[in-house]
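INFO  loader      accepted 1 record
INFO  loader      residues=502
INFO  predictor   begin
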Amino acid sequence: MDLHTVWKHVPPGVLDFMLRRDSIRKYALKRGEQALYDFMVGENTHNRPISIQKCRALMLQNLLKSIDRAIGDGRISPKVSKKLLKNLIGNLFLGESERQIPFEERHGHRPPAMLLISPTKRCNLACKGCYAGSTSKNSETMSFEVLDRVIKEKKKLWGSYFTIISGGEPLTYNDNGRTIFDLFEQNDDCYFMMYTNGTLIDKKMARRLADRGNVTPAISVEGFEEHTDWRRGKGTYKKILEAFENLRNEGVPFGVSITATRNNAELAVSDEFTDFCFKEQGAVYGWMFQYMPIGRSYTMDLMVTPEQRLMMYRRQERLIREQNIFFIDFWNGGPYSYGCISAGRPGGYMYIDWDGNVAPCTFFPYYVSNVNKAFEEGKTMDDVIMSDFFKAIRGWQNSYAYARTPDNVGNLITPCPMRDHYGDSYRIVNEFGAKPMDENAAKALEDSEYRERMIQYGKDIKGLTQEIWDVEFLGLKKTTLGSSAPRTEGVHVMNRSTTKNL
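INFO  predictor   done
INFO  writer      dumping tokens
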């Protein structure tokens, strides 16, 4: 009996009972790891570079191992693991391909796999460099009707059962008495990940999360007390530790969300800190966000330097391979996602803010579509992701890496159109008349010094990583790099006349 059959016909409660037996769980883990490897490396249906497919298989295998450790250590309660097995493993991992067929028949390519949405700008903190510029004074909030419709419509049209909630602080969301828990309850077949500062997760809140079972919090932490409180406010670190404890006691799986800046880059990828997060505190997964110069008081001076980024890449690779942890950097981890996943790319995602504005990514704060307006005009989520603006970005992704032959894929250690190829993003934003999502994004667009420094940053990091990409991923010999290295500069930027079929 294969895994699809097991998950389809065996009740989640029975599966949970079985997987709490070490021998059965270890056997299932071994089978799952092998199935992932066979599918991604052996079958490799999209003819990707084998080195990339091995990376992607490894990261998913690490996720299975992380879940295995958490169940074995008792960090996931039975009532939570039932939803984890049914929604995350069953609905997301095992049922996705079949659900995507109708979309592919309509549009000629697969839909995005997920969505990131910030239903409120309100937040109880005021962190330095917040991408959203959120504070307790902000009142911008999406109506619950629109929020719920977005989730239900992407399930129906895209077959997408995974949603990421951000903010603001999601736990402050309230629209006429309806909170974020109403969304979790009314979409009980989905699985949610919620970025949160963690300060509101007291014992009662942790119990509510356990009772729901279909949401995992990713808690923001910048390092130990000094670095976390410097960015997020005095006393925040202690509240985060309390949140970790409350979640462990209730058996709610949680992760950490780390923002690396020039000030904490070394600490963020140190053995000391990662051991603290994954071994001592019991985080099941981790996300690394390198500070992006957008949002409140944006500055280039907080970005990790190109040299720090190279150091982080090497350390992260070692941690992933030696510690078997699920720990992805949204920039250095480009090989694991096959590059930029924004703008509704197949298998990727897009971002919607509290005003309904639809951006390619949280860190690409420009838009042409708005879900409130789209719904009022009788349009759907399909229409939203088929804007020429999004098609142009998907065109860039295709021409840089996603649609290139295996021996000519662009450097995926530098995958980001905003951070690593700012000149291309700048041209696309202006070509399609995309609007800035806030005042800071508008200032950045008009700031010529900012533009020049961002473009130079991309050149600098490419200079440090191109040989790694050519040799370690594409298998080129150092002696051939001057003549036969794949060209990744000057990739074709899609314009209005070339986006018709994307």
